[in-house]
């Protein structure tokens, strides 16, 4: 094997120093991810990977490889992808994404809710056409679509609206993975799915729901004051097209069912973080979370969310961890603990 040149060795040294400085600046370079308590199970959440699919596919690979490698030690039962899998909805970027996500195939079940950059020519969300729905990627008959945990899809021939079930911690869970700015007909279908699973606790996964001001998207009340609302995209202007944002989803879907517990989304820039808890129509508490890191160096340096569900059935520890840097982000809005059945005060610096 050829020995690396002096220039190559210096470049590696510079990269190592850079990553060490980044880790020290943004989190705790602990050397390994926090251990989980005995009896806990873990939910892994992948925020927007668009920059990885376009320019840094090794970071996407690092995330999914880490999940598989740590599946047993951390009892990882399910993986959610919050959308914007790609940046431009191109075949090359979907090839990268497929390679990274296929690492999970047959290992850890997962659900994907495509984002605005996954639709339309060049990822401009001008229509609802996406490579995601093609059989060669994540469409019908793909390994993604034929996972044993998949319960069904909204539309024949397309997989971008799906539901999934899994068991963890002695409880049955239902995941609704919905398109960017879900249509009214998609919400009607989702309501039927939840009603058919009254004994499952429910998670909503969709690309745009919460904003970084700790409230949910609300076009009727705030309009463009909240940037990147689904109502502002080209898909909303198509004849006969309907689009729903966070407030719409809350009123038409989430608040109506007593078994809803959590919502997840990415999409939003700013500080890329948001959280609130609210009571639904039946008095049940719903925890709503935004996480997005695409604006950070190299598209996020592998940051992802790890939720540890403790064996008491109520306590959930939310952490942010990067397998690329092997460090935790300990900021107040990146690591916190909630009780599934209790309202949580707004997140604030200590």
UniProtKB/TrEMBL annotation:
InterPro entries: Calcineurin-like_PHP (IPR004843), Metallo-depent_PP-like (IPR029052), STPP_CPPED1 (IPR051918). Residues 44-239 form the Calcineurin-like phosphoesterase domain. GO terms for molecular function: hydrolase activity. Gene3D superfamilies: 3.60.21.10. SUPFAM superfamilies: Metallo-dependent phosphatases. It holds the Pfam family Metallophos. This is Calcineurin-like phosphoesterase.
